[in-house]
Amino acid sequence: MSRIASGSPTPTASASQVRIRLTAGSVDVQLPGDVGPILVSTALRRIQLSQLVNKLLDTEKPIPFEFLINGQFLRTSIDDFLSSRGISAETTLDVKYVRALIPPLHTTTFEHDDWVSSVDILSAASAEEKAIASGSYDGHLRIWSTSGNALATSPGVGEGGHANSIQATRWVSSTQLATSSSDRTLKIWNYDDTTLTPALELYGHTSSVDSVAVHGPSSRMLSASADGMLALWTTSKSDAPAAPAQLLPTAASNKRRKLSNSSRQVPQRGPLSMLSGHAQQASAVIFAPNDPTVAYSTSWDHSMKTWDLTTSACVDTRTTAQSLLTLCALPARNVLATGTSARHITLIDPRASATSFVAMTLRGHTNAVVALAASPEDDYSLVSGSHDGTCRIWDLRNTRASVASDGGGPVCESVYSFGRDGVQGSRVGGEGVKVFGVCWDADVGIVSCGEDKRVQINRSTP
Amino acid sequence: MAIPTLSRKRKLVTRKSPSLEEDLLVAAVPDGRLDGFSEEEDSNAEESVGESDLEDEDDEISGEELDSGDELDSDEIPSEDDDEDGIRKQLRNLKTSNGSNGDLVHTNGDRRRVRSTSPSLPSVSVERELERAGSPEDDSANYTIEKDANGNTRYVYRPIDPVYDSDDSDAPATTNTIGDIPLSFYEAYPHIGYDINGKRIMRPAKGEALDALLDSIDLPKGWTGLTDPATGKPLQLNREELEVLRKLTRNEAPGDGYDPYPDMVEWFTSKTEIMPLSAAPEPKRRFIPSKHEAKRVMKIVRAIREGRILPYKAPSEEEQEDLDVINYDLWANEAPRPDHPMNIPAPKLPPPGYAESYHPPPEYLPDQIEKQAWEDAEEEDRDKDFLPTDHTALRKVPGYARFIKDRFERCLDLYLAPRVRRSKLNIDPESLLPKLPSPDELRPFPTVCATQYVGHKGRVRTVSVSPCGRYLASGGDDGTVRVWALFTGRQVWSCKFSSDEAVNIVRWRPGRDALILTACAGDSVYFVVPLSLCDPNHEVASRAVLDDGFGYATTSSTTTPTTKPTSSKWTRPTQKLQDAGVLLQITLNAPPKSLSYHRRGDYFSTVSPASTSTAVSIHTLSKHLTQHPFRRLRGLAQTTSFHPSKALFFLATRQSVRVYDLQAQNLVKTLQPGAKWISSLDVHPLGDNLLLGSYDRRLLWHDLDLSLTPYKTLRYHSKAIRAVKFHPNSGAVPLFADCSDDGSVQIFHGKVVGDGMENATIVPLKVLKGHRVTAGLGVLDLDWHPKEPWCVSAGADGRCRLWC
Predict the structure, then answer these.
(1) First to last CA, chain A
(2) Closest CA of chain A from B487, distance in Å
(3) Best A280, A436, A451 residue to mutate vs chain B (most B CBs within 10 Å)
(4) How big is chain B by its Cα radius of gyration, in Å?
(5) Using the beta-carbon criterion (under 8 Å), do B451 and A253 form an inter-chain contact?
(6) Do β-strands A92-99 and A17-24 pair in parallel, antiparallel, or remain unpaired?
(7) Residues of B in contact with A322 (CB under 8 A)
(8) B739, B659, B729, B641: which is closest to B693 by C-alpha?
(9) For the segment A199-226, what is each residue's pLDDT rounded down to a tens digit?
């Protein structure tokens, strides 16, 4: 057993010591050789342990590490950690160290003409040609390069564009995008690096379409609408059924909306199936991460439903106490994160066998949480965007004991929080700074958009 | 214990003196016989048998010793001397004639030395006597006579052989002769040891049982019942020892500090005492009556006889009354009361202290500075109303100048002091309050501002949340009606109705089948279908609702013979407005200030306070029909409301609320809220409770089944209350709210139990602050989300806020 004098600045002689066994969280920071248990002072904190591991690794540039004991982050001294969890200092602690999340710094901003409702990153493309799609309240879809150049803009209403604000944007493939709009339609766009051309107009919803989910391999698409319906679509023109006639715009309505006859005729198609069940507006829908025939949806009627797409039937309903506004899957944890109007994020275990379906509550936002994105790098992190004008990064291992006001269950606190660029402090009601969409890519970073008419990229540079 | 031992010997000697010769005669006989003999002789002797035995043995040689005890026992010995002289001679003869006997004597002397209990002095003298006795010839050879230098004879004594071991007076008295051997060793034998000659010392005979009984009956003197552990004989104590024991038991033994010879105190000395103690008898004169006194008594007797001295006669009552002093007895009529806590007896003056003394201790006397300060102070400010003064004698004390004033003040004190005890209530005020649930248990309720709706120029006068909960409509002083997406705060529709008149009311028509917004601007009521917001089905339904009446009006206008021509006109608005989605317009006599829908959405009522006779109108949307049911209205109508389930109609005038039955067309009851000017009214969705807000800051909860007066009056606002509203989904969200000109919205929990068996529970939950007070106006209107516990307020600062 090697004894390390430890990086602690003033290790008191009386401080007790504990034996720890360090294991690397990833291969690239593996300790050279078998170090074995190390005797360290229990007064050490994360920063000193990080220095210790860096010393052992003999790294040129110090890497900040986080330390996991029993799957929970060390946030206090080892002594406090052990005593608060009732762990004996006699045992050998298995300490896993992982690269610490680096606070994301603002890098780029893309200015828009109107509020930006949604943003998506083309994840399939290589790092050089990452493209960011943003949908705006002015009805235009825009494609940006990571350097901030506007690559393409969708045409206006007369040219086959959306007549009202875009609510959701998704890349289908590197050449296709899907958008949904409050003009009750979805559109499929063809993108050829310079221009966006509408490929399909999808009719079926009778109210604003607020959320779109895309499953690329099966070219299936799901949408959630404010009329409480979900719709299953296909992105291929040939497979799609015809659009329902009563929903197609008539000449009169075109005239009322001041639409001239579009110069080009866009093919109009209908849904493969409509899923009804939500009592109020459906807010979000996603495909199950490992099964494209299962979908999850949330609604303002406080419920989350599980759908079997092959039979178009609702399989399971989980009812919470708040309106659910957004949904995001964390496949490695087997949970769904959903943002609520009660200013927190609830992790829901969708499995039927789960005894308590609220697995964890993520608290910290001061206004409704309307956007969520899972981390591309590890299984524990996600980022959330809220109407309070901040995005918060969460690590599910960063838990604390719940207090009485939390209503029980484990509670997680955010790791980092960043606001809109150029906005100091918080604003009452998130006036002018509300975040509407957020997306996280390993190379680009965290892309968020909102009421400040900007798409903002925050990136943590190690 | 020297003295007792001596006396013991002495007694022994005196007793045995007649038998001494016998002893000497038997001296040669064996010890055993001697023992037995002496035992017989001394069976009832005072001393123990063994001891007397040894003494007897000694006696043969102790004649000299006894002789030499002259200086100690000068009383008795001389009488024996004569007898002993012969004995001594015999002894000398014996010893001189028989050398072996001399040895025996020496050994006996040793024995004597060993067992000697005598103090040192007698022992030494015995030695000398023994020596003298043992070697009488040495008497002459003890010294040599020489001549000294002057020729005088000089006795030169030989050095005395000190005979070591002779001075053994420190050795403990040994009372047995068997050595230091426990008696238990000889338990199996008839003897208890051996004497110095190797003869057995027989065990002392134990008395038979009868003897023991006799012993126990007449106890010998000094009998203890104990056995001497050293000898195994019964332990007997002599008189002195008993005396010591008696003193010990009676605790008469002197302690450590007892001084048996204290210094004499000379009570009677030659010194003259101031107060001498005298044993002299009382002088005779003290027993002889005084002639002088007799003379004086006779003088008085004579004076009495002659009438010169009159006996004392108590002054009569009349004499007292004759005095011209007026007495004001305050308590003359006061009957003595029994001791009772509620009755306070007249307070007593405190007893005088040192300071009041005519000759106070010096620490109570004021020094110069204190005196000056006392004199300079105002009379009321002085801590005491007199100055302590020192007088050497009571006769030198002058008259008390403040006496009258002091008495007067004392009377005032007595007269003015309260004489009845105040009863204090000892009740914890908290305990009187009813137990209300904690606000934390009543979540969810609105707590923070979630969204602000910015866009209106000037005050926002009214807000309304659409029945689907997605849209918010607001109208304000700028003459516009705006529709917002509720959650994001995005303005999705707007229309300007008037440039100079404010939009007073916006209300969504209830029902989710159609999306119709009603707005009152100026004299007109407009019906709006915001086309961009509703889907084709809703649009068709909404249009149908609004347009139905046109056909009805045209067909039935001719067939209605009944009422007076209505002053209201149902028309299409201008084309410009129609393009914006405004599809119907009603023009009234006066600007409507209040509008409320019936639950079904077909009827609605408006109040136009400016027009007196047609202030209250009830409109039928499907027939485009306007009625004015109250031709003569007492009081100024303020606001109206339909009952949610019954055909009742509530009409609030300034100070009362009238409840009408629409079917029977009569007044059901008149509520007396007690408010000066009612501003707003809302009926609980269950229909049994009514909420009133008033401009005089009162929030009144009426239970319609309970009474005509309010069940609860809440005054939490500092300024006028503008609007009150129950949550429409009060079953799941039992909340209500009011808004006030002080810029705050207050949220209350108001739980109503449907069966009417229980009163409503009202708990204040939250004060929502955020609206700026502009020109004395704060929050002008509020509305609830139809499902969620969210509320929207319209502020005079030009903004609406969503609270959730």
Answers:
(1) 33
(2) 9
(3) A280
(4) 69
(5) no
(6) parallel
(7) 444
(8) B739
(9) 999 999 988 999 999 998 888 999 999 9
How many angstroms separate the CA of residue A9 from the nearest CA in chain B? 45
Per-residue burial over B516-532, b if 16 or more Cβ lie within 10 Å, else e, is bbbbbbbbbbbbbbbbe
Query: At which residue do the structure tokens 């066994």 appear?
Result: A21
- Residue A314 pLDDT > 80: yes
Q: What is the structure's pLDDT at B7?
A: 40
Fold of the domain spanning B441-803: Methylamine Dehydrogenase; Chain H (2.130.10)
Determine the residue of chain B that is closest to A341 in CA distance.
Answer: B804
Chain B residues 538-577 within an 8 A CB cutoff of chain A:
538
Q: Residues with Cβ < 8 Å from A359, sequence gap 6 or more?
A: A335, A347, A348, A349, A409, A410
Confirm or reject contact between B439 and chain A (CB < 8 A): no
Q: Tokens 């700028």 — which residue?
A: B478
User: Model's pTM, two decimal places?
Assistant: 0.65
Which residues are A41's β-sheet partners?
A17
Q: Distance between CA atoms of B591 and B90, rounded to whole angstroms?
A: 171
Retrieve residue B261's tokens: 């010879």
> CB under 8 Å to B136, separation ≥6 — which residues?
B92, B96
In whole angstroms, give the CA distance from residue B618 to residue A54.
81
From B777, B746, B697, select the one nearest B460 (Cα to Cα). Answer: B777
Kindly determine whether residue A436 and residue B488, on different chains, have CB atoms separated by under 8 Å: yes
Residue with tokens 């000066």: B676
Distance (Å) from the alpha carbon of B698 to chain A's nearest alpha carbon: 29
Binned at pLDDT 50, 70 and 90, residue A31 comes out as confident
What are the chain B neighbours of A367 within 8 Å (beta carbons)? 448, 450
Higher pLDDT pick, A410 / A461: A410
Contacts of B788 (CB under 8 A, 6+ apart): A300, A323, A341, B469, B733, B804
Q: Cα distance from A115 to chain B (closest Cα, Å)? A: 9
How big is the A-B interface in CB pairs under 8 Å?
71
Please give the average per-residue pLDDT across A299-312, as a whole number.
92
Please indicate whether, in this complex, the C-beta atoms of B490 and A165 are within 8 angstroms of each other.
yes
Q: Which amino acid is at B755?
A: D
Tell me whether the omega of the peptide bond preceding residue B229 falls within 30 degrees of 0, making it cis. no
Per-residue pLDDT at B798: 92
Q: At what angle do helices B77-97 and B99-114 cross, to 10 degrees?
A: 130
Tell if the CB–CB gap between B536 and A300 is shorter than 8 Å. Answer: no
Nearest CB to A137: which of B450, B490, B579? B490
Residue B801 sits at the chain A interface (C-beta within 8 Å): yes
Q: Tens digits of per-residue pLDDT, B137-167?
A: 445 567 788 887 788 888 888 877 766 665 5
* Region label for B458, one of left (φ > 0), alpha (ψ between -120 and 50) or beta (otherwise): left
Read off the amino acid at residue A90: E
Residue from the list B490, B579, B770 with its beta carbon closest to the beta carbon of A428: B770
Mutating which of B451, B470, B484, B488 best tests the A interface, going by the most A Cβ atoms within 10 A? B488
Q: Which residues of A touch B797 (CB under 8 A)?
A: none
CA distance A369 to chain B (A): 11
Q: Which of A137, A207, A343 faces B535 most closely, judged by CB atoms? A: A207
As a whole number of angstroms, the longest Cα–Cα distance in chain A is: 87
Note the CATH number of domain A105-459: 2.130.10.10
Question: Domain locations in chain A?
Answer: 2-99, 105-459
**Record: contact B489-A429, CB cut-off 8 A:** yes
The pLDDT of residue B553 is 60
Q: Is the pLDDT of residue A461 over 80?
A: no
Interface predicted TM-score of the whole assembly (ipTM), two decimals? 0.88
How far apart CA A294 and CA A351 sit, in angstroms, is: 12
* Top-tier CATH class for A2-99: alpha beta
Name the residue ranges covered by the structural domains of chain B: 441-803
Q: Average model confidence (pLDDT) for chain B?
A: 78
Cα B186 versus chain centre, distance? 75
